[in-house]
Amino acid sequence: MTQSQPWWQKTAIYQIYPRSFMDASADGIGDLRGIISRLDYVKDLGFDCIWVSPIFRSPQKDFGYDVSDYFSVSPEYGNMSDADDLIAAAHSRGMRILFDLVLNHTSREHPWFKESCSSRTNPKRDWYIWQDGRGTRPPNNWKSLVGGSAWHYDGNTDQWYFASFLPFQPDLNFRNPEVSKAMFDVVRFWLDKGVDGFRLDIFHCIFKDERFRNNPFDFRYVPTKNLTAGFFQKWKYNLNRPENFELARDLRSLIDTYSPQRLLLGEVFGSDHAIKNYLGDRRDGLNLVFLWNLLPIKAEAGFLRDVIRHYEARYPEPFKPVYVLGNHDQKRFISKIGNDVSKAKLLALVQLTARGVPVTYYGEEIGMPDGDFSARIARDPLGKRYRWIPDFLVKRLGLYVNRDGCRTPMQWDNSPNGGFCPDSVIPWLPVDENTVSVNVAAQKPDENSLLNVYRRLLHLRQKTPAILEGTLELFDHSDVGDDLLAYRRNHVDETVLILINWGKNTVQFHHQTGCNHILLAIGMKRPVKLDPIAIPPDAGIILTRSN
Ligand code: GLC
Question: Taking Cα atoms as reference points, which of 480, 471, 478, 467 lies closest to residue 512?
Fold first, then answer.
């Protein structure tokens, strides 16, 4: 018998981008009251945890990932009492809530940075990373994650400050104990308010090489998917430094003093080895890290089998792989698969029944597509930076430089603004025209809609121990052929069998598992025979053994 697992190992997380979820104040920008008003929707869908992208005071140049005060709420989202109410509203529904914590950098408008900039002798000077240049050149060759030197010259003090991301997001200097103390105070402040943990923004960037050694050359210009290299260098000395792993452990020690248990979910990029290091040798680091292998998604059995096999090999029990299909930085997954709703249902089936923690980005459950915005009119600062690249080239190179596309307002109904804000108001990003047909209200009554497939899967997941905490056994390609993805989840004496046909022809499968009871079927009628079973194209089924 396995011991019962902590809540976060069995959770299903729903990511809310507050700016785009629900606008209660009718100013075209989503807000905390809006989120509160839609919590029942999220709960009813079957998610028991929400992650809310940053809500702290910010000039919003990177929409909250540029914080100017960690102890207050950005006015367009509400105020502190709204934040308290949101936490309480989640808890009163038996849900958990994660805030999004940007430890690596602040906004340039944070008072700490203003002080730090004011003179070389200011007590906050060393709170950020300042270095002398090499003549008129930056201190070393480090490139930011978004291209260009990561160093920015400050004429006032004749030194350069470092920014891993955009120039208005200066990196904090975690080697200064005052900085780590200040940021741990932030963590405590929100934990004391009751948040159940944090999604940690670009945690792999926090420490940099103490000696500021130049990064070695790499022949790649376009950054690799796991961000180990880009812009003609290996990101050796500025990412995934050993001190980051220590910081992970220190933060874990802090959250573990809280009860009920809290969660740290890290956004980290790097080699497989580096990513796993964040969890700690003794599982004393971050509780979970996002895994990105599903992002170049292919709705194909082979691709998915490889990802699952990889996750199982690298993150066996008691680790939990995190299954992500998208977020506020990535093109929406349904657009990557040609807006194929049948396939989206099957991908949801995989995400919600594989062994691990699923994180669903708002709107995925109704199949919201990516907005097709030219970088020339970008609101996203990354898009603005790359607006000079012609749209056709962006597409040809498969780049995603304007993140506006995945951030359009949630489509609640078929009104012009999708029910996100009143129709008399201009939303901060236009609502996709397809809200006419792709919206929550339209999908609710349809038992077979994508929305209801998510709902049925999540509800089944909640009540099925084998899916929540069972082991996973993958059927090999040699047993099932090219088109079928098949795996078993086993827990104590419960077995659940998942079979999905990604091909164009019906697949016959003799599984010999004794599973003779249908828990859920997608895209197919109740089959007459269960073993061997005939699975039509674009269909999936979950079976169990009735004892
Ligand atoms: C993370 C966030 C992204 C943000 C960046 C800088 O990757 O997900 O939205 O722009 O960090 O904070």
Answer: 480
The closest-lying atom of ligand 1 relative to the alpha carbon of residue 164 is 6
pLDDT tens for each residue of 279-291: 999 999 999 999 9
Kindly report the CATH number that applies to the domain delimited by 470-544. Answer: 2.60.40.1180
Ligand 1 neighbour 165 (Cβ under 6 A): yes
The top-level CATH class assigned to 111-162 is alpha beta
d(CA 258, CA 339): 43
> What is each CA distance from 198 to 150, 251, 324, 476, in whole angstroms?
26, 11, 17, 37
**Catalytic annotation present for 482:** no
CB contact set of 225 (below 8 Å; sequence gap of 6+):
292, 295, 296
Nearest CA to ligand 1 atom 7: 202
Longest dimension (CA), the chain: 80
What value does the mean pLDDT of the chain take? 96
- Domain borders along the chain are 7-106+175-373+433-454, 111-162, 470-544
pLDDT per position as a tens digit, 19-41:
999 999 999 999 999 999 999 99
Average pLDDT over residues 308-326: 97
3-state secondary structure 286-317: CCEECCCCCCCCCCCHHHHHHHHHHHHHHCCC
CATH superfamily placement of domain 7-106+175-373+433-454 = Glycosidases (3.20.20.80)
Of 16, 62, 166, 401, best ligand 1 pocket probe by most atoms within 8 Å of the beta carbon: 62
473 is catalytic: no
Cα radius of gyration rounded to whole Å, the chain: 24
Catalytic: which of 201, 404, 469, 483? Answer: 201
Sheet arrangement for strand 151-154: 130-131, 159-162, 151-154
> Which residue, 504, 519, 422, is CA-closest to 462?
519
